[in-house]
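Could you please review the protein record set out just below?
***
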Amino acid sequence: MTPVSQQTPVDRENLELARTWAPPTGPFRWFREVNAQVIGKRYIVTAFIFFLIAGLEALLIRVQLAAPENHFLNPDLYNQIFTMHGSTMMFLFAVPVLEGFGVYLVPLMLGARNVSLPRLNAFGYYIYLFGGIFLYIGLLTNTGPDAGWFSYTPLSGPQFSPGERLNFWTQMIIYTNLSALCVAVVIIVTALKQKPPGMSLNRMPVFVWAVTIQSFMVLFAMPVVVAASTMLFLDRRIGTNIFNSAQGGDPLLWQHLFWFFGHPDVYIVFIPPMGMIAEVVATFCRRPLVGYQAIVLAEIATGFISFGLWVHHMFATGIPQLGEAFFTAASMMIAIPTGVQIFCWIATIWTGRPRLEVPIYWAAGVVATFVIGGLSGVMMAAVPFDVQVHDTFFVVGHIHYVLIGSTVFGVMAALYFWFPKMSGRLFNVALGKWSFWLSFIGFNVTFFPMHVLGLLGMPRRIYTYQPGLGWDGLNLLSTVGAFILATGFLLSLVNVLKSLRDGREAGSNPWDAPTMEWRTPSPPPSYTFLELPVVWGSGPPSWDEKPEGAVRGLDPSRREVLITKIVDASPDHRYIVPGPSIWPFLLGLLGALTFAAIAFYIRWAPIGAGLCVLALIGWFWPSRGSVTDTFGGAE
């Protein structure tokens, strides 16, 4: 440590910031953390743990279907594992892992010290964590859901699914989706109000645009599935008969509500990986993206159009032909903005100087697999074809090409790209390439035969099948591919663990990338930037651009952040963000216990609500010091 007499003003400010933004101490420090980078990494690690569990469930499903009349799993356990696999991938992995990357990277890409609402951010993580844990406690205690991750009524209603399994599932789905809403608010406020001076909307990195668009979509889509799950729970617990046709309800209402969430959700987990791929392609091609504005507008258009597609999941339910025509057109039209982004990436690669590093392998895998999934999606947008393949394995192959091909491969590209920033270590390149090729080959061997199985008439959501139908060989091939795919992902896990232990030091910017997060040490300190940057110019960040100055006037002895105006990012005021607190953890735990108890005994509702109110009082109890102040200036 530099002696006090020899410390420069910069050294003193550095020490002051380190003290002010220091992580919590004491025996409960893990539960009090509110730093965005710490919470973001927790999201990512937790989501990948759930991904591994979902992968094990998928292998069990594939082993069961590898041969006809197989009894590896009994029908009841198969239904529970089948339902838990889909629920885990959609609710506990796909959205949370992308929001985790958003929480971690958005403040760094904007030159901010933390997100705008750090305690809400921490609370969102805890309700996600406890919701997932309680859902798996249900599986381990024979209370796992067994009606599919879609839980169609009337199958999921009390008359066909008695007991507590679906009650518990609805409560945990409601609770975990509240986490997505919390993070969406955090990201929107941070992206729009904490941009550095000079970073107007037309200068935001594409990934920041992508997660901001995703967050707005979450605000419109997630409340619908929360409302639908609440209605189903009320039908099951107190007999409201909202979905019971015998009592004047409508079981198709569940499908409308669920898919009004479900199809935008496909693009909720698709748009952020597109932003990730844009950053990877630009960095490794050593040039700004071709068509930056076209890419951003395409992502916005995708977000809007995605809310007009849900009925193409219901073409076999007998909806009016005019409705079929409208949703067919919308389902085909959404391919246009996706094609715009892909052509912009190709143009960037064509006019750049590509470096074949591991992240760009995964990015290329996204393009290849998503194009195949997109083409089969356009095929199913045609009503006659959709009716023929509806509820067959063709749909299973399609949805996995879309979701794994875009989301999982995109997340892997992001993991390899930003791993040096998060850990300060470089990964093993050879293991990374082996992981990609095994995953890519295994993925196609697993899911491409499913399209053929669907055309041969194999229905989805079945426990077993009879021999002599022509499905045996393709199912065995698909199972072999699943184990190859699992080996590929396992190599990435080994790579991460090995690199964390003995990987070479990465330095601040091993990829020579242009965006702001690479201007901090790796991993970043708790206060991220010693001097908050000021940027000028036009267009997205480029290699020639350097910070034009630094923000002045923030008090290093307080957790002050700079709030800027939405459009032009001109300085507006200073804001003191809350520090570490245990109340988000306590409220998250009490909420999870309340929702779990209500699934079995609804009389716990007022007791749990009262305890949660007490936790909220502790959370919002006023502390000393002002919250906002006028801005001191920038230079």
Q: What stands out?
A: The longest helix spans residues 75-109. Strands lie at 533-534, 549-550, 560-564, 571-576, 628-630. The two ends are 30 Å apart (CA to CA). The CA atoms of residues 153 and 252 lie 8 Å apart.
